[in-house]
Records
---
Amino acid sequence: MVKLLVKILSALFIAISSAYAAPLITLSVDDVHSPLLDAKGIKASLTGPRASLLEITLGEITVQGKIWRNLRFSCHAFQFSGDLISCDDGVLRLSKSAPIPATFHYSSRDKTLDVKIQMTSGEASEGWRFSAHWGGAAWEGVLTVTNGQVTRIAELLPDKEREMLASANGKINGMAKLRGNAGGLANIEANFAVDGLAFSDVSGLHAGENISGEITAKAERQNRQPGNLWEWQADMTWPLGEIFWQPIYFTGQGHRLHVSGSLDDDIIRLLKGNLMLAGIGEADLSGVVDRSSNTLRDLDLRADNLELSALFSQVLKPFLENTSLTGLKAAGYAGIYLRYRNGASELLTLNLRDVSVEDERERFTFRGVNANVPWQARGVSAADISIRSSQLLRIPLGEFRIPLEINGQDLAISRMTIPVLDGEFTLENFRASRQAQDWHWQFSGGLSPVSMQKLTEALKSRPMHGTLSGTIPKVSYTGHTLEMEGALLFKVFDGTVELRNLMVLDPMGRAPSLVADLDMRNLDLDLLTGVFSFGNMQGRIDVAVHGLELFDWKPTKFDASVMSSPGNYPRRISQAAVQNISSLGGSGAAAAIQRSFLHIFEEFGYSKIGWSCSLRNGICHMGGIASEHPAQGYVIVKGWGIPAITVIGYNRNVDWWELINRLQRITQENVKPIFQ
Amino acid sequence: MRNSVSRLILLVILLSASFAGYTAADIEINTPAIAALKQSMQQRHGQLEPYYARGAVGLTRDGLIAMRDANALPLSARQPVNALIASENQDRNALYREIARANNHPEWEGDIRSTFGQRWIELARPGWWYEGAGGAWVRK
């Protein structure tokens, strides 16, 4: 570069000297093309007394595809005498930048060139100096920067890059030594430190503030090798400052990067790289960048012992922000190995050691996760994942292994079992694949009997007896919808509960909605009313909840009915239960009872129970035993025997949440009814 | 101001009688799902309010919110505010879907969204930013 400059200057001044007698010299060139640069609209003029006023303007200059426009250099004290060319008060202007005072001295006798930009900005004096000297074919140049303003570099950047760094700020100090010979630049040694660096693009989504850091780099051209081969190495440290590169926010805490490699006309090769992220761990890197397309061609990345808690919160979590996994916390250690070849990932292996994952919304927790998950672009690989303990919706799960088969973007588990309390969940024929950014999966399985007592304990709900079991012919998840074919069967209160036609829309989203049909048969009322402290009832009931719709796990619509099961069994209802049933209907509901006799009896006989509720728009529309048609209201309990009692409801509509509140008051407070 | 979100939801429904010819009186807005979404949005509104006022977050025409000027926030707050915006938009999308669904007209979702979009903007405080008809940000 220096050599080129020398040649240009010499040529220019030969032209000037030949016309020295004339007061005005103007040189105008439309286009200059060279392998290094293209320039358009070049004008140079030398005017004034003793030709002391030099003006050079450049309409456009393109170097390696980067464009600068409207460059202008003017010098009012230009001197040219024999072997010395100098300018002590030059001004450089780059399109929109402020004028930059510049001086230069060129001595063909001493073979030196000295270019200086010296300014006082704020309290500190800012200086940029380039000194070069040469002898024979060899030359050496030194660039020294003292309190250099990063804004200055931003101003010197090509038009497009300058926009990116419009508000760059900070100071730079350091030195670069360049050595060359007949073959051009041969050696670079540089050390620069930045302090208080700030930058931001217009949107503010890529920005840094208060960044301090240091870079030391060396590069040397390998003359023994054919072609233009360089070997280089660089060390960078980042002790202070913050960067936001959407979506990642990272603070400097002593992170270090050491890289070394080679460079030729076609590629940049990273032979050895080591990235040390403070608080997270170290990664070794190597790779190749294709210079013609400016893309990463190959990469090997290996990290064995990453601290997962910091890695997750700083690097991985921001990518999960829009997903249902946004509230995750992870701890433990992770290892990763990535092999990337010819622009595509070939192999990715993930190792987890004693990892725990917790969902802040308490949907799940996994502890003691150890895993080796190999993935390869072609062919099938087998992952081994073991989980010591976990909780799913507060239900504890025992230790289990996941024999996962991975084939490209397809995942499969042929069979696995998960201990659930005293039972077991069996998963079979699990298949998952990623199609157009969405995951689709399906499985079949079954649940061997789980004690309802243990389950209700785990869920911290009222204790129930019986078992929960079921066969699941097929569950599939596609298009954000989870659908179950077949039925889940529970055995509770000595009866059966069957869940069918289950479909959950957006199950992992913020507002999941569920539709299902539920049929319960032959529930023992004695057990049921005992658990819910409702007042004792004896008998058996069938409950149907059809067209059930939940939104955010709260009911919005259903058609429910409760009726006595067919068959012979004792049918008795206590005073307390009668009163509670009556009070459920609110003030409008009343029991058609003969109050004067009621207090004599603890319990009554009945022949049938029937109650229905159609929930629409928050209102429960109620009815009673379908075959009974009293003059007013609807029959909920039809009396039979001695003493008998018939309960009639009059209120046909009740607010659903009011009804639930009443039910909760009754069952929680265990209110003892008072009869007078 | 916490109640303003639920008042606004109500207002939007009552004042907009333009859902494909249906009158406001026909609109069902009193479902547990809508109540849950309203509560969630009310809780978040207090956190979002200073960002609206500062111009960091603006109201879009499609009834959502967006980061208008991240430069108005410290670097460390930019991703948390992004997350807040994402959560709010999830709730808003669910709200429009649920209002349409609760009224047994899922096809109303687009109309409900655009009506809400206009009303959120009309009811925004002076100084807040919204997306104008041409797509550019406008200060109210």
---
Amino acid sequence: MSQAATAAVAVEGRNLVKAFGQGNAAVRALDDVSVTIAKGEFFTLLGPSGCGKTTLLRLIAGFESPTSGEILLDGRDITALPPNRRPVNTVFQSYALFPHLTVAQNVAFGLQMLGKPKAEVSATVERMLALVKLEAFAARRTSQLSGGQQQRVALARALAPAPQVLLLDEPLSALDLKLRKEMQTELKRLQTETGITFVFVTHDQEEALTMSDRVAVMSAGQILQTGTPRQIYTRPANRFVASFIGETNFLTARISGGAAHLAGGVIPLPAGTADTASATLAIRPEHLRLAPPGTPGALTATVAHSVYFGTDSHLHLRLADGAELVARQQTSADGAAGPEPGAEVGVMIAEGAVQVLQE
Amino acid sequence: MAKRSARPFSVTDLPGFATIAILAFVALYVPILTLVAYSFNGATSVAVWGGFSLQWYVAAWDNTVVQAAAMRSLGIAACASVLATTVATMAALGTTRTAPFRGQTAIYVAINQPLMVPEIVTAVALLIFFAAIKVATGYTGLAYLVMAHTAFCIPFAYLPIRARLEGMDLSLETAAADLYASRWHTFRYVTLPLLAPGIAAGAMLAFVISLDDVVITEFVKSAGQDTLPTYMLGQMRRAITPETNAISTALLALTVLLLTAFFILTRKRD
């Protein structure tokens, strides 16, 4: 279940528009976006580059002001506040660590600017460095650290003032794959331990699925769908979401009498599906099962080719009308090869796996 | 078909390259080395070697006129470099940390005017302008020289500071604002410390430029306001002694020291 329905609201964006440029040349980086982020939530803004996710983050941080719309933090309108007066901190993509300060001084910066007493500052800095496991590096210059360590300093620095919301702008994109996996776990742990609301920006759908409580999928300045990772994966709202998150087969079919009619056969649909002359069906490759040709209820298809991935193979299939679809088959225990290209097979579709998309 | 060389073209492969290079270095350094050598001359001639001696350094050090001129030079250079660097820092901030505005190029040109207008023209203009003020106010102190030096030192201080500001990662200032720093605190605790090497470099360059000036100083100075270079110019009109060499060598040493510091400060890190 979504936590947003029950928990208090941390951040709310109302009808946010951000236009860059003037008149006809103006580009709407955000086009009437409304979003509600619950307290203590790990909320991810996911989308391709240029979709407006970073702009939305910068509006919440206060680095940009919206062309129109409002931003509320804990119910208070902060739209007009400059960044230094918002109880929100950012982990920058480039980390933006102060090169003239030590690791400890970097982490202390926000607390000092807030005018916290010295004893409190040093105690918090110590606690933060322990949290990101960098106690031994307190006196180092940031240039002497590796990318992963700099990332941890950036996190500690942003968490030290105990912000109401932590904003993370693609913080893992500069790390190599192994380190990125480690930091994903680390971020999730930090979020659970501190209980701070995280707003995370990424273009990596796997990152979004594994870490988030809820994900907002963005494209062309709009939020297309907001939901738990499970919701957006299994019930994508439209074709863009379905193709951006994971792999999906798209098939065109005629819907009548509660079933989808395709070139290779008929697929039953949930009761109450409206009749349409032409609808798009989305089916995940892992929900397709191969069966002997002619099995009742199976679509008839021909194997075009197959790609072996180790744990599974992707079978590229072709229906009678030329439509292509991919079936993911787990490699069997005896390692036997699947059907050869050119072979005729039956394709069974798991019940409830077909999603009829609204165009 | 011409035989293709394995190596790409390099200017060092041209015939006579080494000869020209050596000649150029000889032309650059032999006169200076001669000047330095003769400053240790035991004889009273600048052309005949009379054994090693520090007598001319002692003579220059004991010469009260040289002392006064040296102190005046250092004082003017110190005041002018501080003033020029302050103005240059503000100008650099104003031309890099604002949204692009109309006339930005014009302002850039205006700031660097002293680099483009012939120095003798500025000197004559200042002579006439300051003469009028001297008559009107009756004040004939060193402030005229300080003002003139400040003006022509500004572009030399401006350029390294601006270069440093342009090379600075803007996200650092954004990060400071994100971490509750007001505009002033962002400047004081992030921009200024990061800019410090540029400011120091600009100040040193301004100091050296001021210390070395002859033309404008000669035209602007009132009676009894000789700086070290104008004193030396005056000496040349009479007898040339190795004392001038000694003063020149001392000036050279100070300049080399400051410029070395300048290069260390502006050297790219990492």
